[in-house]
Each structure stands twice: as structure tokens, then as C-alpha cells.
Give the backbone structure.
Amino acid sequence: MPQMSGDAYVGRFAPSPTGPLHCGSVIAALASFLDARAAGGTWRLRIDDVDSGRARDEAAAEILRALEALGLHWDGPVQYQDPRRDQYQNALERLRESGRAYPCACSRREIAAVAPIGPAGMIYPGTCRNGLPAGRRARSWRFAMAPGELSFSDRHAGRQSLEAATGIGDFIIRRGDGLHAYHLAMVVDDAALGVTDVVRGGDLRPATFPQLALRQSLDLPTPRYLHLPIAVDPHGRKLSKTNGAPPVDLTQPGAALIDALSFLGQAPDAEMAGAPAREVLEWAVANWRPALIPRSSERRV
Ligand code: GLU
């Protein structure tokens, strides 16, 4: 497996522009920012708008404004996915040439009727793997997963492993509507940005397996991973833009950062209360201790 070889640290925050930043996304942004800055590294911002049907321009603008208000300043230009479709298609062609991508005629409904659910979604039963059934047209493209163990070491949860074929199966890399799937886009983008470290919410931990398989097949480097506890509301529901989690309160950016730091087990002394964002961040970079992130897989905000 290709590994990063002593490269300087490059981290990134990669929100999908489907709504304003809520406190779960502020936690992910802050943790990846602190991890990068404490390592003297670069911190890039990518707007994950590959799913153009769900992406909203005003949400992207709002996210940028919120990060600025919180003092989470990124390096270099913002990378958007929408203009990079050719890169994703090139990657798909490379997979096809090496026999790792194939066209699929199945509809989601057909698969749902028979497919078991794995940690990263439905496990495709393999209907079109050896050719399209007679009379059927290709709708999407799938990655042909090789059997064998996929594993990675998570800086928070330790070693993670899964049997690739039975745990994940052949997943979509280009959808029926012609859009490239998120897993494919993000591995191409992480490599283009030179990302060495992925710090993100624990809800994305299972997604690491298909992403790892793609990275290996495309000969792209594997970053280090740190998945954070999942931020849940008092009812135990994951905070997400799509289920209407309230936007972070930007009238007091310092307080929003302190809340996120407490979630991450890095609460500053009480005297920091009321401090401006810049001061809170200075303290947080100097005192960033990933080992203090609580061990639980979920945490209430
Ligand atoms: N765009 C993804 C999301 O907002 C996150 C991607 C990532 O950090 O890898 O859920």
C-alpha cells in the first residue's frame, strides 16, 4: 500500500454545500485545522459539490463566511469539485482499463430488494459484474472490489479492518444520472491537493474502506486518518445539514469554538470565556492534544 513518505502535513476540510455549518461540522473543521496548524502544516478547503443536484451556491458562500468568522483561515484557493469532472472521468477510464470498473444496469430498487446492508451501505449482489444481462442497458458504473482484507489505522479508534468483497462489495463510481460518485471524486481530489492527513467526523469512518480500495487501485497515496466521535443531539440523532441541525451561532465565534473544543476534550480554562476567536485559536493550536479526544464513538453536543 503506498504510504506518505515524510511529506509535510497537508490537511483539509471538505464540507458538502447542502446547508449552513452546524456545530458538528464546526467540530470537524476545528479539529482538522488544529491538527494541521499544530503540525506546522497546510490546511486546505474543498467544497464537495460533486452532487450538483444537492449543492447550493448560497450554502457554499455561507460556509466560507462562517469559517472566516470563526478565524479558521485556509491556505491557497478553495477547491471545488464541479469543474473537475474530467479528472474523475480520467480516473474512471483508468479503472476500466485495468478491469476494475464495469457498467451496471441495475436500479437501486432492484438491488435494495435483495442486497444485504454493510457498514458503508448496500452490498451489491454482483448481477452485472460479468456482463450486462441480455436486453439491459448500462445505467451506472461500479468499482470491481477485489476480495481480501482492507485495513487502516485510525488515530482515534485504532486498527480498522473489513473483508472488502463481503463487507463493502462493488460500489457505484458513476451514477445513473452521469455524476461521478463521491468516493471517486474525493480520492482524486485528496491526491491532487497532496492531502497527508484526513481528520473528519466518525460517521465517515466506514466510507474509508471503499475510498482506500479506490486509492490502492488508482495507485494514489493513503493518508493518515483521524475520525472524531460523532456529534449527536440530545435525542441521539447525528447532527447533519440534511436533518436540519441549527446553524452555528456566529454572533459569538469565540464561544462557538470553546464549545467545539470541549467536545474534543480540549476545553480551555474558564478565563478564556468571552475571548475573541483569534485568542481561543492561538491557545488551542498551542494546546492541541489529539490523545484527549474522548474515546466514545458518539458524543452529545
Ligand atoms: N463532504 C463530506 C461531508 O460533508 C466530507 C468529506 C470528507 O471529509 O471526507 O460529509
The CA atoms of residues 13 and 45 lie 5 Å apart.
